[in-house]
Write a structure and sequence with these properties.
The complex is a heterotrimer of chains A (706), B (316) and C (497). Chain B has helices at residues 5-24, 31-56, 64-80, 85-109, 114-133, 152-176, 178-188, 190-195, 200-223, 237-247, 259-279, 286-315. Chain B is mainly alpha-helical and 316 residues long. Helices cover 33% and strands 26% of the residues of chain C. In chain C, helix 6 (176-191) links the parallel strand 7 and strand 8. The chains are: A alpha/beta (706), B mainly alpha (316), C alpha/beta (497). Chains A and B meet through helix 6, helix 12, helix 14, helix 16 and strand 9 of A and helix 2, helix 5, helix 10, helix 11 and helix 12 of B.
């Protein structure tokens, strides 16, 4: 609204500075500079960063986030906030899946109804915020829980919808004219629509007025409540649209879609120059903010830099752009004042002066950020050594920008980098990489996030690695992009969890879900002596692997152990402390429980600690976890036993298999695979088998260190 | 009645929930359960206490979850390095003060909106920690780490006592010390406070440091309940603390609210999950109900306001 | 009265981002005197007192308190030295009780001192009683009315036991009785040896309360005189630097058809009841009354901000329901509110956006704004109303108070109203701009607009209105034609208990 490039006829010619300010009312130039720097740096350091294909890929990754950021822009301009958008995505995804599969509606009808559901969810926020005048932050904090909770309740966490028709999936995964991801068109339309709404219509004008002064807007006859209601409802619908794109992109509708997206979207909008206090901000600014974030993530990936840098840099950027805005706004007020305008400005100028940021302070800030980065980098090196004790050295080669062509590059992805399970896998993978003289790229989502997995694989394809090995979080979601990798001649393995069969060359199978489920149940029956009650502490209620295991556990239970009863399944969200509290509750609500089976790695020590503190020595813990985490409890007898395979060996074997695949030694029909210290490993069809699940107990646990 | 409408709404919701549980599952009210609930939620109460100060000042801190994680790991690493527990506690609190001070400088000195500044801190701290530890846990801690080496009963008692002491001290600080009244004054009107001779920047800075110190302390007593320290502690803690404070009636715009309300809010949120389990409600509904109860508390406040207005008219 | 100055300020200069607010001003205050400070808006009065209280720091010049130079004064330091101030906008803490507000204003000591609540209450009770306030120390400030908040602010300043007390427009929203009380207390303070700096736009108050008067203009000290030696006319001449022969242009217009009619209308929530009123085209109806008499509430009722729930409202003879400002605008009713900064304009929006804000539908086609027409219309009003602004794209915040008021007026003229309600249209703006607004009101009435003007300034009411309605306690208690209205009769009616 400030930026009207319309030619002036009746006023004197504008100075270059005024024109500059008219085009960049909120210092969007700073973001353009940031994006330019990003492009420059990653153009040099990233593999194939500067290609049209990568450009479109970046676009595809930004669509869902972009839709949320667009819808959030007018809300933040109005002085509000919507924390529920990410949760609304989850709810919409589930509703969409249910409408299509359970209600058997055709896709278009399901889309329309899902958008209607989004509108309804937005309307709930709207009523409470616009009608009852409750603070948006609290209202949407409540609906943030409510929407996600409804999504989980509707699916019982277990249900996930997949098998959507290819014509629908094309929208999320295909290419128009061979290059253009179709959902980009939707984002483009949304950008234009929101830009027009905000900058060219009377509604948009009203929203700015409300943002600067809700009272003043009311006195000007603006229907404040109706305008606010509109933007919150639009936000709900936009979240639904984002959910549909997300489902088409990943081929699967689950309750955890869009987790954490709300904060990312807020970051993009604020980075784009929108004031969190309302009033100031533009759609082009938000789009630039979005681009800056998405390019940063993609570029870091293509440069082989750790993804954690993205968060650190984004945080620094946020602070820096606001300080720049502060500094230049002060300068601008000064010029305006110098132009001879009277004294109403004095207050503002004074304020600006006081809040003013001196250049020296910006320099100090930059120095602090740099120093902090160095400290973090240094402590990374120190801490990891001291914590791991196994003295597994770093990947080392990650940071190098030019990879020698003679050394094959093997890219390996865990489900979540922070998970101790995968950290131990990495140990083995790095050991194998050293032995074989290959470069290992180890990257993936920081937390369970199927969309991130796709993103990383896309980046690897663009970068041009020799082999990709993925621990798959979401079968339907990742298979398309893995097929694409195969088409480009990249060797594709899956490990730990499989994709669709035709999407990869081989699967490194540590154990089947059935094998795990049966082993767990059999072990539980042994501890319970075939009779009694037990409870399960799972990861999150929508965790796919765990739900699969629980299914097999129940099957085995029904078939073999009629006198054992499963009385509760409680979530732990992969959090040790939550597992602890849930176990305490279970023990009290079901005093008859004699065994707690925790099936997420951090949940086992949590459950064990709870049992230990309850003082009930007759209750035992079993489950699926890592030896180092459980050692003290195994020794003290709280944990009778637990099930796992040798995760270090799993990582080790995967890298050996990948190397063999690249060297064409592992090809269809192969019977054996030489795997270094593991010796010869059997290959059955398209699966490489690590061996059966292993039961750890007091007698053998000290032989393992991972 | 008028001024404490929101506190009353939260307390009423809590009472309704407890009454339901008392009718259907009286075993909920066992001493053992009370002890476990108190222990499990003592750290969250400490954080919510600090958050009350921050919100009263008209600010917000969404980086407490990340601060909590950093402080937890710091506690573990230092204890493992062989420092005695009191020294660990002191060092962890200093670390928390430092993190709070960074927030304080960003917000008070450089006037960056607190939600943005602490959003930046949240991602920076969390990702820096991930980068530094790569998700590893601190294990093989010395014997005197868990329960401060005092055993479960004494240690647990100390933790709950610490939380209560901090809570009581905070009530005293807010109500009876000039600095506490200054928190209300700055939250109500920063400019008026300045003209009344209070330096709002100092108060704001101080409040963030206090928040950091309390978060670190909470992380420390939480860590001491276990024998190892996980690398990803405190995810979502900020939302839990903010929810407790605002459900407890503190105005998000600052200047209005009480710690008693925060206690009611924290208790409500702490009891929902276990209460549902005792009631036999399927855990899949827990999150949805939690959201619904927050919204219901908000709406009941409006309903109470309506009733009161009617009463006023009637008495005219 | 002693002769050694309590405060001596010399050569004070202060520029805000290039605007020279003070330009070598000097000022002197003795112990035991009330020294009035007058000048047009923007003359530098507020800047001067903000420097003295340490709220801001001067670029140049010196301040001596008791002969001692004060440098790098902060509000804390000023308070320590016994300087207290009442600012134009009450600087109270809305969520805190009256006692707390008073304590925060006058207690001294560090952040870590303990608080004695009952002592606070006792002291607050005494102070409130002294200035004749009738609310409890436990009352929450935000529940108080505007005049009560002003009294609270006064109690707080007095409670500081200041040797130097600054009052910036303390009477702006006070009733006559409260003003009398205030003057009594000021007199007591003066007799106790304190120095009082008194700022007011109400020149008629000055002979009553002030010993000396200093006139500021364009950031410079123009003159300091003993109060008895100077009359109102001379004071105005010094303030504006020119004679103003007629502040209120007279005009005679034959009133036309009835534009707005109220029959027993009222609104329970805002306390307006049983208002019967008729407003004709081409007429200016003055609405007189004390602050809190329900004038603004009546205006807000007509404008749909607090919809009427009893009686009848007719516009051009037709019964209507006005549930929202949007309804009012549709019916051709416009309302220029009292609080310019909060309600009249949106300071951060450019002048052109402010101009069209109440008539957005007029300036859009299928919801899309016609930015060209908006610009043209804004430029038209800038020219017509003589708004001094760099361009129509300048933010309203960069304009002076008087020009902001003109922008607010322009916004409502852009809706082409038949009925224009003006709430204190010239409050707090300088004399030049005031005259322009009065001239404009005359022109608008001549064009056939029906104008309802709320004003607390008796000369304005008497000079501008064709008829004068007097309100008290939410009701109309009297109606005069211009010929029969005198200040005494109007005031008597407004005051009657």
């Amino acid at each position: 609204m400030h930026n009207s490039p319309r030619a002036e006829t009746d006023t004197p010619k504008k100075s270059p500075r005024e024109i500059f300010n008219a085009w960049f009312p909120n210092n969007e130039w700073a973001l353009l500079a940031v994006i330019a720097v990003e492009v420059f740096v990653f153009g040099i350091s990233g593999e194939n960063f500067l290609t049209a294909a990568n450009g479109f890929e970046i676009g595809r990754l930004g669509v869902e986030l972009g839709l949320l950021a667009l819808a959030l822009t007018p809300i933040i301009i109005s002085g509000g906030i919507d924390l529920s958008a990410g949760s609304m995505m989850g709810l919409s995804a589930v509703v969409f899946g249910a409408l299509w599969r359970d209600a058997q509606l055709p896709i278009p009808a399901a889309i329309v109804l899902t958008l209607a559901a989004g509108l309804a969810g937005g309307a709930l926020n709207a009523v409470m915020i616009a009608r009852f005048q409750l603070p948006p932050l609290i209202v949407t904090l409540g609906s943030f829980s409510l929407f996600r909770g409804l999504a989980e309740a509707l699916t019982r966490g277990i249900e996930n919808y997949s098998g959507f028709p290819p014509s629908f999936l094309f929208f999320g995964q295909g290419y128009l004219g061979g290059v253009l991801p179709p959902q980009l068109l939707l984002l483009g339309a949304a950008i234009i629509g929101y830009a027009l709404l905000l900058h060219r219509t009377s509604i948009g004008r009203a929203i700015y007025a409300i943002g600067f002064s809700p009272e003043g807007a009311r006195f000007a006859g603006i229907p404040v409540a109706r305008r606010l209601a509109l933007i919150y409802m639009l936000s709900g619908a936009a979240a639904s649209a984002a959910a549909i794109v997300y489902v088409a992109h990943l081929g699967q509708a689950k309750a955890d879609a869009g987790t954490g997206f709300e904060l990312m979207a807020i970051t993009a909008v604020v980075l784009g120059g929108t004031s969190i206090f309302g009033g100031r901000g533009t759609i082009p600014g938000s789009v630039l903010g979005l681009i800056a974030i998405v390019v940063l993530q993609n570029g870091l990936r293509l440069s082989g830099q750790p993804a954690e840098l993205a968060g650190i840099l984004t945080g620094a950027l946020l602070v820096a752009t606001i300080l720049i805005d502060r500094a230049t706004r002060r300068a601008r007020i000064r010029t305006a004042a110098a132009a001879g305008i009277a004294n109403g400005i004095a207050g503002d100028a004074e304020e600006a002066e006081e809040a003013g940021v001196k250049n020296s302070q910006v320099a100090v800030l930059s120095a602090v950020i740099l120093a902090a980065a160095l400290i973090v980098a240094g402590s990374n090196w120190l801490l990891v050594r001291s914590l791991r004790e196994s003295a597994a050295p770093q990947g080392g080669k990650r940071g190098e920008s030019s990879v020698e062509k003679s050394r094959p590059v093997i890219a390996m992805m865990p489900k979540a980098k922070g998970d101790p399970y995968f950290i131990s896998c990495r140990q083995g993978a790095e050991e194998a990489a050293r032995e074989l003289g290959v470069d290992l790229l180890w990257d993936g989502p920081t937390d369970l996030d199927p969309a991130k997995q796709n993103e990383v694989v896309e980046a690897w394809i663009t970068r041009g690695v020799d082999a990709i090995a993925v621990s798959v979080e979401n079968q339907a979601g990742i298979s398309t992009v893995l097929r694409k990798a195969r088409e480009r001649g990249i060797g594709v393995l899956t490990w730990d969890a499989d994709s669709e069969r035709d999407a990869r060359d081989f699967f490194i199978n540590q154990a089947t879900p059935q094998g795990i489920g049966y082993t767990l149940m059999d072990e539980a029956a042994r501890i319970l002596d075939r009779r009694g009650e037990f409870a399960i502490i799972t990861a999150s209620l929508s965790a796919a692997n765990q739900n699969e295991w629980i299914r097999h556990i129940r099957a085995r239970l029904a078939a073999e152990y009629p006198e054992i009863k499963l009385v509760a399944v409680q979530p732990s969200d992969g959090d040790r402390d939550r597992a602890f509290a849930e176990t305490q509750t279970v023990l009290k609500v079901h005093p008859g429980v004699r065994l707690v089976m925790a099936i997420a790695a951090p949940a086992v020590p949590g459950a064990a600690e709870a049992v230990k503190q309850s003082g009930r020595s007759e209750v035992k813990v079993t489950g699926l976890s890592l030896p180092n985490m459980c050692k003290p409890y195994v020794h003290s007898g709280v944990i009778e036993s637990f099930v796992l395979w040798n995760t270090v060996d799993l990582g080790y074997l995967t890298v050996y298999a990948a190397r063999a695949l690249v060297a064409k030694e592992l090809k269809p029909g192969a019977r054996r695979l030489g795997a270094g210290r593991l010796g010869e490993i059997a290959v059955e069809g398209d699966e490489v088998r690590l061996g059966a699940p292993f039961i750890f107990n007091k007698s053998n646990i000290d032989r393992f260190d991972f | 009645m008028n001024r404490y409408r929101r506190e009353i709404a939260a307390a009423a919701a809590l009472a309704a929930l407890l009454a339901t549980v008392a009718l259907i599952a009286p075993s909920f009210f066992s001493p053992a359960n009370a002890r476990d609930l108190a222990l499990n939620n003592a750290p969250a109460l400490i954080v919510a206490t600090g958050m009350t100060f921050v919100i009263l000042t008209g600010q917000i801190d969404i980086s407490v979850g990340s601060q909590f994680a950093v402080a937890s790991i710091t506690a573990g690493v230092l204890a493992k390095a062989g420092l005695p527990m009191p020294a660990v506690a002191a060092a962890v609190v200093i670390c928390g003060c430092a993190m709070g001070a960074v927030n304080g400088v960003l917000v008070a000195r450089w006037r960056i909106p607190s939600i943005v500044a602490t959003l930046a801190m949240m991602v920076v701290l969390r990702d820096a920690l991930r980068w530094a530890t790569e998700g590893a846990w601190v294990q093989n801690l010395p014997r005197n780490f868990q329960w401060f080496g005092l055993g479960q009963t004494a240690g647990g008692f100390i933790i709950v006592l610490a939380a209560l002491l901090i809570f009581a001290a905070s009530i005293f600080l807010l109500g009876r010390v000039a600095a506490g009244r200054a928190v209300y004054a700055v939250g109500a009107s920063s400019e008026a406070a300045r003209l009344a001779g209070i330096d709002p920047r100092r108060v704001t800075f101080g409040v963030f440091v206090w928040m950091g110190a309390l978060t670190a302390l909470a992380a420390f007593v939480n860590a001491a309940r276990f024998a190892e320290v996980p690398g990803n502690a405190g995810v979502g803690l900020e939302l839990k603390a903010i929810a407790a404070v605002v459900v407890g009636g503190t105005a998000i715009t600052g200047g209005r609210g009480t710690l008693a309300g925060t206690l009611a809010g924290a208790a409500l949120l702490a009891v929902i999950g276990p209460a549902l389990a005792f009631l036999g409600v399927n855990p899949y509904w827990e999150k949805a109900l939690q959201g619904a109860i927050i919204l219901a508390a908000l709406l009941s406040e409006i309903a109470l306001g309506r009733m009161q207005r009617h009463a006023q008219f009637a008495s005219r | 009265m002693t002769d050694n100055p309590l405060l001596h300020a010399a050569g004070l200069s202060k520029a805000f981002a290039g605007v020279q607010a003070l330009d070598g001003a000097s000022f002197e205050l003795r112990s035991g005197e009330v020294h009035a400070l007058v000048g047009e808006n923007g003359a530098g009065k507020s800047t001067l007192i903000r420097i003295i209280t340490g709220a801001i720091e001067a670029d140049e010049g010196s301040i001596l308190l008791d002969g001692e130079t004060l440098s790098h004064l902060t509000p804390q330091e000023a308070r320590r030295r016994g300087i207290a101030a009442i600012y134009q906008q009450p600087q109270i803490f809305p969520e805190l009780s009256a006692a707390e507000n008073i304590a925060l204003g006058c207690e001294r000591g560090g952040l870590w001192r303990l608080i004695d609540r009952s002592a606070r209450r006792r002291r607050a009770g005494q102070l409130l009683e002294r200035i004749g306030a009738r609310f409890s120390p436990d009352a929450i400030a935000s529940d108080l009315t505007m005049p009560e908040q002003q009294l609270l602010e006064i109690a707080r300043a007095i409670g500081a036991d200041a040797r130097l007390l600054i009052m910036d427009e303390p009477t702006a929203s006070l009733t006559e009785a409260d003003v009398e009380n205030l003057f009594r207390v000021i007199g007591e303070l003066r007799d106790g040896g304190a120095g009082v700096i008194y700022i007011s736009h109400r020149l008629e108050e000055l002979p009553v309360i002030a010993d000396r008067v200093t006139v500021l203009r364009d950031g410079r000290t123009i003159a300091t005189r003993a109060m008895p030696e100077i009359d109102r006319r001379e004071l105005i001449r010094l303030m504006v630097g020119r004679e103003l022969s007629a502040v209120f242009p007279k005009r005679e217009i034959e009133p036309g058809v009835t534009a707005l009619e109220l029959r027993g209308a009222g609104c329970t929530t805002s306390g307006v009841s049983d208002v019967t009123l008729e407003l004709r085209a081409g007429e200016i109806l003055g609405l007189a009354g004390l602050v809190g008499a329900g004038r603004t509430e009546l205006a807000r009722m007509i404008f749909g901000l607090t919809p009427a729930d009893e009686g009848e409202i007719r516009v051009h003879g037709e019964g209507v329901r006005i549930e929202s400002p949007a309804d009012a605008i549709r019916l051709g009713i416009a309302y220029v509110p009292e609080d310019r900064r909060r309600h009249g304009v949106i300071a951060e929006l450019p002048v052109r956006a402010n101009t069209t804000l109440a008539a957005l539908d007029e300036f859009s086609r299928y919801g899309f704004l016609d930015l060209g027409r908006e610009r043209d219309t804004a430029a038209e009003y800038v020219a017509r109303l003589g708004i001094k602004t760099a361009s129509v794209d300048a933010e309203a915040a960069t304009l002076s108070g008087g020009n902001q008021q003109k922008v607010a007026l322009g916004r409502w003229l852009a809706t082409k109203p038949a009925v224009l309600i003006l709430d204190e249209p010239t409050q707090g703006i300088d004399i030049g701009a005031k005259a322009e607004i009065h001239r404009l009101m005359g022109d608008l009435a001549a064009e056939g607009m029906a104008i309802l003007m709320i004003s607390s300034e008796m000369p304005e009411i008497l000079g501008m209105s064709d008829r004068i309605a007097v309100m008290r306690g939410g009701r109309i208690v009297g109606l005069f034609d211009r010929a029969e209205a005198t200040p005494e009769r109007v005031l008597e009616l407004a005051l009657k208990e």
